[in-house]
Amino acid sequence: MFINNPISVFPDITEILFNSIHKNYLKVILLNVLLIFTAILIGLFTADYFNLFEEIKSYVYLFYIVFSFVFILVNLFMYIGFKKRKYAVREKDISYKSGVFIRKLTTVPFSRIQHIEVDEGLFSRFFKLASLSVFTAGDSSDDLVIKGIAKETALEIKEFISSKINE
Amino acid sequence: MNNSFDFSNFSRQSSKGILVLYLNFIYKFIKVTWILLFFAVKDFNKISSIKLTYIYIGIAVVLIFLLVRAYLIFKNFQFKVTNDHFILKQGILKKTNTSVPFYRIQNINFKQNIIQQIIGVFEVSIETAGSKDTEIAIKALPLSKAEALKEIMSKSASFDKLISIDVDKKPLVKIGLKELFKVSLTENHLQNLLLFLALIIGFFQQIEQFVETLGRTDLLDGFIAESKDALSISFFLITILLIFLTVIALMSSFVKIFLVHFNLTAYLKEDAFEIHQGLFTKKSIILKKNKVQNITISTNPLKRLIGISFITFKQAVSGELNEKKDKLIRIVGCKNEQVEIIKTSLFKVIELENGEKEYPENYYKRRILIFVFLFLIIGYALTYGFFNHFEIFYSTILVFPISFYLILKKVKKRFYKITDEMLIVGSGLLETHLTYLEIFKVQNIKMRQNIFQKRSNVADLILQTASGKINIPCIRFEDAIKIYNHTLYKVETSRTSWM
After folding, report:
1. Of A54, A147, B380, B439, which shows the fewest CB atoms inside 10 Å?
2. Interface with A, mutate which of B322, B350, B442, B443 (most A CBs under 10 A)
C-alpha cells in the first residue's frame, strides 16, 4: 500500500481541467495527411499510366479501393487523436496528454525547465498557430511538446513560465 | 595552497602537449587506415621500388602534416580564468571561444593515458551538465598547475572546497589483485562474450568489405561454405568451439575488468567520493554527492555467493544517453558493509528502511509471456521455413521451459518501494539491480496506458531524471496516480538544488 503521506491532500492531476488544442490545428493535421496522400496518389497514377502494373492489370482497381479505405481510416484516426490532445498549465507545472491506443500523460514542473521554445510550421503560421516545447536536463528527446495552440497563447504561456522560473 | 600560477591571463598547456596531441593523431590515423597498412605489409615484397618511394613520401607528408596540425592546435589553445568563468580560446581556422561559469561545472577530473604517464603530464577534463559543446579537455598540464587550476575553480560557492588527496586516510574500498581476480571471475561472461563477438564481427565485416572491393570474395565464400558443412557433421568440432568460446568469454571479462578497474581505490569524503582506477589510462574522479542523480547496486548469483556487488553512480548527462557511457562511474567488488556505508552516506537511513515492496500487477507477467512466446513461435516458424529440417523442433524441449523460467525470474525481480523521499526500483534477469532515487531529482514524469492496460486498470510510470529514465511498469492505476501526484508535490516543494 502506498501510504506514508505527511499531508492528507495532494494536488491531484486527475482533477485539473485540461484545455483542448486550437480547433484550427485539425485543419493543419488534415492538410498534412492530404499532402502525403496526394503524393502517393500521383505516384500510383503515374505507375498506372506508364503500364507498370501490366501483369496485374485487372487487379489495379483494388489498389485504389485500398488506398481510399486507408485514407479514410487515417483521417478518422487523426480526428480522434486530435480530440485526445489536451494540455493544462497549473501554478507550478505544465501537463500534456495525447494518444488513441496508447494514452500518454506528461507533466514537467517549472522548477526543472531548462529552456522553452515556440516554433511555427508552414501551415501553422497560416492559421496563426504555434507549438510550445519545454526542455529539461538530461536526455531531452523525451520532453514535452504541445503542437497547435494559438500563437498568442503560446507566447503567454512562455512568458508565464519564464517569470515563474526566475522567481 | 599553491598560488604560484597566474590564471588571469591567457596561458597555454605544457609544451609537452604537442607530443601528446601528435601521438594521439598518429594513433587515430593508424586506427582509420590499419587495413590498408595490413595489406601493404602483407604484400610488401610485391611492391616495386618506385611505388615504395611514393609510399614513403606519402607517409612522411602525413606525419609532417599531423605534426604541424598538433603544433597549431597547441599554439591556438589558450585558457584563462576571470570573474568565476573558465574561458577557452581554440581552433586553427574556425576560432571558438568557450566560457563556462563555475557553477555549471560538474566535475574536474584528472586522467593519464600511457603517453601522458611516460612524459609526466595530466589531462584535465572539465565536465558540465549544460550543452554538448561545453565539454573541455586540456590535454597536458603538469600536476602542480593542474592542481592549482582545480583549486581556483573549486573556490566558487557552489563547487565549494577542494578535496585534496589525503594519503593517511583509510580508503573505503581498495581492490587488490586477488579481489579483482574474484570480480572478473564472477562477471556476466555471456554478456562480455557477446560484446566481444560483436567487436570481432565488426572487424570481419571491415575486412570483408575491403576484400570484396578487391574482388576476391569467391575464395572466402568457398572457405565459409566448407566450414559450415564440417560443422553440421562433426559434434567434436562443436565441443571444441564451446570450450574456445568459454575461454574467450573468461578472457574478455578479465581484460575488461583489469583495464578499467585496476588498482581501484575509493575514498569517502565529507561531501564527495574520490575514486582512482585504471591500468593504462589512470583516472581520478571526484564525485560530488549532491551531483549524483541516482545509484544502482547490482549483483548476480555468482557475486552474491562471495558477497560482493558493484555500484553504478549516475550523474547528469546532456544529449543522448548512450554516447556518454564514461559518465557512469562504477565501483566493483564492494562488500556488503561497504555498500551500506555508501548508501547511508548518500541517503537518509530511515528512508531506506520504511515502505513496503510493491510488485507489478499480473498484467506485466502476461504481457512478457505473450510477447516472448509469440516471438519464439514466429522465430521457429521462420527457421523451419528456411531449413526444412524437422529436427529444429527438438530444441523446444529446452528453449520453452528455460524461457518460462527466465520470465518468472524477471517478473519476480521487478518491484518498487516508495517512501516519503525515496524511490527504490528492483529489476534484472540473471543479475539483480536495485536503483535508488531521491524523488525530488526527477525532471519530468510520464504515465502511459494502452487500451489493454486500461481494461486491466494498470499503467506504466516513467520517471525522467537528468541521468536517464526509470521505469515502473504495469502498476495499479490508482497507485500510479498517487505516485504521480506525490512526485510532483515533492519536486515542486523542494528547495534543494537537483545538482
Report:
1. A54
2. B443
